[in-house]
Amino acid sequence: MLATVLHSPGDIRFEDCADPEIIKPTDAVIRLSATCVCGSDLWPYRGVQKVPEPTPMGHEYCGIVEEVGRGVTSLKPGQFVIGSFFASDNTCPSCAAGYQTSCQHRELVIGAQAPRLRVPLADGTLVATAEIPPEELIPSMLAVSDVLGTGWFAAEAANVKPGATVAVVGDGAVGLLAVLSAKQMGAERIIAMSRHSSRQKLAREFGATDIVTERGAEGVERIKQLTKGVGADSVLECVGTQESMQQAIGAARPGGYVSYVGVPHGVTLDGQSLFFTHVHLHGGPAPVRRYLPNLINLVWNRKIDPGKVFDLTLPLAQVAEGYRAMDERRAIKALLRP
Ligand SMILES: [Zn+2]
What we know:
Elements lengths: L1 E7 L2 E6 L11 E9 L5 H4 L9 E2 L4 E8 L11 E3 L3 E2 L5 H4 L10 E2 L7 E4 L2 H4 L1 E2 L9 H20 L7 E5 L3 H12 L4 E5 L3 H10 L3 E3 L3 H11 L5 E6 L4 H10 E9 L10 H5 L4 E4 L4 H13 L11 E4 L3 H9 L6 E4 L1
Parallel strand pairs: 11-12, 11-14, 12-13, 14-15, 15-16, 17-18
Antiparallel strand pairs: 1-2, 1-4, 3-5, 3-9, 3-18, 5-6, 6-10, 7-8
Helix pairs in contact: 4-5, 4-10, 5-6, 7-8
């Protein structure tokens, strides 16, 4: 099959790859209904994260089960399923605690920017819908697989509660869906930090009440002004840089909560300044599996429309253009049709 491989920074190729097959009895192979480019794919694409060898790309997926290993008991061919970027058994102590991305048997799922995909630990990883979803729900079902699940974790890890004042750092797809998630959890005021008009517009559609365009120390100052000088109850960091992390911690009130879901690159925190902020910190790779059943239901019942973050749809063969468009910030997120 033809699939997506990153050879070196900026060099995305759609080329001949081995067809995925069942390797372990607990595997499934699915045919993708849709896949997409993740903001985190841009780290290796931009050379910030080293690419030592040609690497299959893509970790967001939904589709139809084609084949299951003999050890798979809860799924059968023909079902529509969604999974997340780490396969998990969903039974070990970490999974039982709700941290499936720290599963003792976790395996990274890669190679999803392809027509077909092998998913390890299929019983624990994949959640099937009751029926095949209609075509118009596919983008939102795909968003559940990573960006929405990650935005949801950002809101939950930052303790967003009804009536809360929330600030979201980052206007990528995860940041925008963190706004949607905070709204769903009953936040009263949601301040989105964004400089881009199309993203500001979507943030408002998803529930943002205020937009802050300043960054860094000025951004922190602006949040303080908007919150009676105290800072936000919950700050959701959805970027992963030193500046965004400092901005998030600075924008939280004493005793407030900061979640961080952007993969950190070059972030270091000074213990003593952190000590005096009095903030709670909670982040990491989002345990999307924990949220899949609830988020799938919200999409299925048309309570939310997270698929709106896909503002570019391309045939899978044009995946390289999807990367370019996101790298140049011409697109928020590119959906790929196999
Ligand atoms: Zn586990």
